[in-house]
Amino acid sequence: MALSYAILAALFNQSCSGYDLVKRFNKSVECFWSASHQQIYKALSNLEAEGHIVSEKIEQENRPNKKLYTVTDSGRQHLQRWIGEAEAISPIKSDLLIKLSVGHAVPTITLLQTLQTYYEQHKERLKSYQLISKQYAQALQPSRESQFQYLALRAGIRQQLAWIAWCEEAMGFLGQPVAVRESSSAS
Amino acid sequence: MALSYAILAALFNQSCSGYDLVKRFNKSVECFWSASHQQIYKALSNLEAEGHIVSEKIEQENRPNKKLYTVTDSGRQHLQRWIGEAEAISPIKSDLLIKLSVGHAVPTITLLQTLQTYYEQHKERLKSYQLISKQYAQALQPSRESQFQYLALRAGIRQQLAWIAWCEEAMGFLGQPVAVRESSSAS
DNA sequence: TAACCCATGTAACCTGTTACATGATTAA
DNA sequence: TTAATCATGTAACAGGTTACATGGGTTA
């Protein structure tokens, strides 16, 4: 369900083909959702069957033809209605947290190694978000659209910072076997 | 896949019935994953077929019999192996971020209302995490197990704090003075 | 008398992942 | 010549949601 809306939102911001959508979802700015190309092509044909998007066949030379998808009035209304609804927030569902909550089942060194790997991944992701963020910040006259995308990016950055700070806390905790400390930099 | 491990981890910490697992997953401390009872019963029977857990039939008076599930040696090893592996981190997949990234499609007031609802939910969740956290912190001699659970909880707290701070940033950006209402729970 | 708690399940359906398929163009 | 890019799909399977089913005991 949410994937359809994510697609609708992406197409509302910028009409494109299924192939381009895949790239936007998995590589670049729209990094808050992911989906395989199979899933996306399926969702696109459903959305078109429901009348929320239309496709225009683009004939190309020296490469395969493609379909350019555009949001219809019906699609826009569908999207607008959804934005106005607030769903219940969902649980974190993080592998790492499950692993840590049974950390006593393995040697501390194992846990530290696993933690380190996640730590580095979060730092990587933060870096890529900050890079995009810089591009937005440098725009002299940002469009209203891009301001919203910048805001969403800010959330991503805050999430990564929270994970990174926590990894450091956890590694510190595991580094010297101590009791639960009351202080820490919780704020 | 991850659900099986989450169940294994929960049972490793404390053997219990499927019914009790549902409660532990959806209500209380193990609040980092969620699953319906149908899903959990299914996963339990799979795990038992694979030999990772065993069930003991508990006969009860005045109420239905139940099955007490316990992790086997094989199950413990399976879990330990998994803890040592580090998967790739996954995208945020937040409805709210999708909504915000096409915020220009609706009137600002609509977006603010939606944001406010998420904001309150995150504050609620933070409160419940902090309540559990306090119980851990008050334990005079915390077990090694509970220290790990406390650490996982710290991650949950940091996540909620990040969301809350971002909601305030976003609401501020959208031109609404952030009303810092201390008790928004009764709304 | 109705609703909820205990306790476990089946079945239909939708969503997401993995594998398979095609076929021309371009860069190493 | 090997691989990657462009561009779109089908099919089998695993994971997750919703609806349906049972039946005694307790609380309002």
Q: How would the blueprint of this fold be written?
A:
The structure is a homodimer of 187-residue chains.
Chain A: H1 2-13, H2 18-26, H3 37-49, E1 53-58, E2 66-71, H4 73-84, H5 95-101, H6 108-138, H7 144-175
Antiparallel strand pairs in A: 1-2
Chain A binds a DNA duplex (28 and 28 nucleotides) through α3.
Task: Give descriptors for this structure.
homodimer; 187 residues; mainly alpha; Arc Repressor Mutant, subunit A; 2 domains; two-stranded antiparallel sheet; 7 helices; 6% strand; elongated; DNA-binding
Tell me what the structure shows.
2 copies of one chain form a homodimer. Chain A is mainly α and 187 residues long. Chain A has 2 domains: 3-83, Arc Repressor Mutant, subunit A (Orthogonal Bundle), CATH 1.10.10; 95-186. Chain A is built from 7 helices and 2 strands, in the order αααββαααα. Chain A has helices spanning 2-13, 18-26, 37-49, 73-84, 95-101, 108-138, 144-175; strands at residues 53-58, 66-71. Chain A has a two-stranded antiparallel ribbon. The two termini of chain A are 35 Å apart. Chain A binds a DNA duplex (28 and 28 nucleotides) through residues 1, 3, 17-19, 35-39, 41-43, 45, 60, 62-67.
